[in-house]
Amino acid sequence: xFLYTVFLLSALVGDSNENDIKPNSETEHVLEGSSVTLSCxxxxxxxxxxxxxxxxxxxxxxxxxxxMPPTTPGFTLEHDKDAKRVHLKISSAEVTDxxxxxxxxxxTVTGNPETLYKNLPYFIHRENQxxxxxxxxxxxxxxxxxxxxxxxx
Length: 153
Known about the structure:
mainly beta, eight-stranded mixed beta sheet, Immunoglobulin-like
């Protein structure tokens, strides 16, 4: 079984009204092909929540923005205003989803590095070991494994 770990970075725009956004959970494990939900809690007032994905050595890519149709099939944003929580739902986790994921309180990828702050990581990482609960690390994680036969092939 292959293990994939997803880390989340929360991007927050610093301003004087104490807005903040942080991942909701520390660790989740799923098999490849299963649905995954990444969540962030926020404080303060928000206008438009977003989720971004960033591959190594690449610029962040907008996945979904509140009040807009999803830009990437299989990824949806859900906003629970009462709980002050935003979710990114991935309908079928794949190895190609290996990346950093950012939740943000408002658009942050504008070319101005002062508007992007990173808190906690969601990063997909492949390891050749059985899926098992993980409590190590800083920030939320999702592990996505592929079911293999008894001989490991």
